[in-house]
Design brief:
This protein has about 650 residues and is of the alpha/beta class. Helices cover about 30% and strands about 20% of the residues. It is built from 21 helices and 30 strands. The longest helix has 19 residues. Bound molecules: ligand 6R9.
């Protein structure tokens, strides 16, 4: 029998939950049993965390798969659940958002204030002709108005489509056109890396190609010069002069809440559609369960941008549905200095931090002396999302940020799943560095081989979801067939996530990267993640990206791009010696089959705007092809540096 995916990496360290946290945890091990006993009854109980204007008649309608309906017949208002009910319960004075601008300006917004702002925006949107079912594009920096705009749409039943503020005119144009948006909400600009960047100019250009757009609503953030047309209105002239009273109307549980385009690198972006009742149920439940949120005392910080699903589910809808107090930061981690994030944790006494492996590995590269300079004793729980977290990065995070005290929750999920699916429970799970561990209560996942048979413990294969879940995508906007083809056709009746995974000897799940990236070396399927983790486990390495390049003898050969840690000397002979040592290190850690043919030492890696490594571009470099489309790249000069290094032969090869 041929293997689906080799299982090379062995990791035996394990960390039980801190006793104090476990004793007061929001969820105990019983939650798994309760959900297993009756999954739908479990989700029904979670739905009761919300306020429903009308109770549902049926928990799940799965009579027409893969088109699910959750909480059929139920009605609720998503914004009411995130705002009004907390104010009505007496928590109006609780801070919802501590906001910090990149230049250092701050705002503190209570739940009562956030409600008033959202009511004003809802009234203004209505006055601009937006009604339930219309699409609204939101193209804003990380300012509180972004949250207000999303909630105002939800309040009046308009479907928002948030487009990341770093995207180009073309990306914005395509997304506005695909959704036929009637209104665009933007700002003059925003602050990033110490500079005021322009947004309005991009919108002007995009909108000239988007006949569906009737009005453009503009927040003044930087005060920079903008051109103006009849279709434009200022936020401060409309929203801030509108009434602060607005009665929220209830909408159907399956009313569309938002479209979010996945950052496809080649094909046309997919408009992932999420609806209301099931989505809000699962984001609220998971935020409560996975982050162990205590709304009275915690200060929660998710460092994602609002333009990604993590910002939607774990800055806006989950935390606000749970009445959390959170920090929101406009800028980048290195402005004005590399300690900015830790300075913010210290200043706001952040207790729960949710960030991405890319950020952790960047911090590793900058060195542990930077976080050492700050008081991080307020932290009690750390989270990770976006990519597999290499065991050494996990340990670095635990030691240098969590100071050995805080549990780490490595949360696997996707834009399509809407909410966290596989993750430790912080008061229950003994975590393993690099593993997302088990599906959450109420979630059914499996690792299967190419015949859809579950792999045994110790085996690798494809990650699938075997039962519908409340926050699942409902379709791809305007393209049901593509929804079926992309996610439901590879394995009959199963949702195929596109990720490789393995089960260890205890049955715990380890994510191994996108299956498109798996390398085929001398007949063995080797995951990029495992080789990258082996490289990162060397003390001189901060970050690594691995690709398979065509090879005349082995089919594909492993080529690794490696970023050294800050203190490491890579000049001349020292660099050559390090490369030889790293190849040996991988061979020893994973076996000779995984020994890279080539290792390049590079200063940066090509990443998407959400921080995921773009291996496709590195494959082009490794195979000496001209570079494909680099427009979704975070920093396009990175590729020139890497290609130049490759040409100069700064690598080692047998
Ligand atoms: C939330 C988000 C989804 C893809 C997903 C997987 C990767 C996310 C991960 C992870 C390993 C984790 N991914 N979390 N891989 N461990 N904890 O990132 O959504 O932008 O749609 O990306 O990200 O490959 O399939 P999205």
């Amino acid at each position: 029998m041929s293997e689906t995916l080799a299982n090379l990496l062995q990791e035996t360290r394990q960390f039980p939950p801190p006793a104090e946290l476990a004793a007061a945890a929001n969820l105990t091990a019983e939650a798994y049993d309760e959900a297993a006993a009756d999954r739908l009854a479990f989700w029904e109980r979670q739905a009761r965390r919300l306020h429903w204007s009308k109770e549902w008649d049926q928990v799940l309608d799965w009579s027409n798969p893969p088109f699910a309906k959750w909480f059929v017949g139920g009605q609720l208002n998503v914004a009411y659940n995130c705002l009004d009910r907390h104010v009505e319960a007496g928590y109006g004075d609780r801070v919802a958002i501590h906001w910090e601008g990149e230049p250092g300006d701050t705002r503190t917004i209570t739940y009562a204030e956030l409600l008033a702002l959202t009511c004003q925006a809802a009234n203004a949107l209505t006055a601009l002709g937006v009604t339930a079912g219309d699409r609204v594009a939101i193209y804003l920096p990380m300012i509180p108005e972004a949250v207000v705009a999303m909630l105002a749409c939800a309040r009046i039943g308009a479907t928002h489509s948030v487009v990341f503020g770093g995207f180009s005119t073309d990306a914005l144009t395509n997304r506005i056109q695909d959704a036929n948006a009637k209104l665009v909400i933007t700002a003059d600009g925003g602050y990033r890396r110490g500079k005021a960047t322009a947004l309005k100019a991009t919108v002007d250009e995009a909108v000239s190609r988007c006949p569906s757009v009737e009005r453009v609503l503009v927040v003044r953030r930087t005060g920079q010069e903008v051109s103006w047309s009849e279709r434009d209105v200022w936020w401060h002239d409309t929203v801030e002069t509108a009434s602060t009273e607005h009665t929220a109307e209830a909408f159907d549980a399956e009313h569309p809440l938002y479209i979010l385009y996945t950052s496809g690198t080649t094909a046309k972006p997919k408009g992932i559609l999420h609806t209301s009742g099931g989505y809000l149920t699962q984001v609220a439940f998971t935020h409560h369960a996975v982050f162990d949120l205590k709304p009275e005392t915690d200060v929660y910080w998710c460092t994602a941008d609002i333009g990604w699903v993590t910002g939607h589910s774990y800055i806006v809808y989950g935390p606000l549905a749970n009445g959390a107090t959170q920090l929101m930061y406009e800028g980048t981690p290195d402005t004005p200095h590399r300690g900015r994030f830790w300075e913010l944790v210290q200043k706001y006494k952040v207790t729960i931090l949710y960030t991405a492996p890319t950020l952790i590995r960047t911090m590793m590269k900058w060195g542990e002396d930077i976080p050492k300079g700050y008081d991080l004793s307020s932290l009690r729980l750390l989270g990770s999302v976006g990519e597999p977290i290499n065991p050494e990065a996990w340990i670095w995070y635990r030691e240098n940020i969590g100071r050995g005290r805080c549990p780490i929750v490595d949360t696997w999920w996707q834009t399509e799943t809407g909410a966290i699916m596989i993750s430790p429970l912080p008061g229950v799970t003994a975590t393993k560095p690099g593993s997302a561990m088990r599906p959450l209560p109420g979630v059914s996942a499996e690792v299967v081989d190419d015949q859809a048979n579950p792999v045994p413990n110790g085996g690798g294969g494809f990650l699938v979801l075997t039962e519908p879940w409340p926050s699942m995508l409902r379709t791809i906007w305007g393209d049901d067939q593509r929804f079926i083809d992309t996610y439901w056709s590879r394995f009959d009746g199963l949702y195929f996530a596109g990720d490789g995974a393995k089960k260890d000897d205890d049955g715990d799940v380890w994510l191994l990267g996108r299956v498109d990236d798996v390398m085929l070396v001398s007949g063995h399927n080797i995951s990029t993640t495992e080789v990258e983790s082996a490289l990162v486990s060397h003390p001189s390495v901060a970050e690594a990206a691995v690709v398979g390049a065509t090879d005349p003898t082995t089919g594909q050969a492993i080529v690794a791009f490696t970023i050294p840690r800050g203190h490491v000397d890579t000049s001349g002979d020292a660099g050559t010696a390090l490369i030889a040592e790293l190849r040996e290190h991988v061979s020893k850690t994973l076996g000779p089959i995984a020994k890279p043919r080539q290792i390049m030492l590079v200063p940066e890696l090509p990443k998407t705007r959400s921080g995921k490594i773009m291996r496709r571009l590195l494959r082009d470099v490794a195979e000496n092809r001209s570079l494909g489309d680099v427009t979704t790249l975070q920093d396009s000069s990175v590729m020139e540096l890497i290609s130049a290094g490759m040409r100069a032969g700064k690598s080692d090869e047998d």
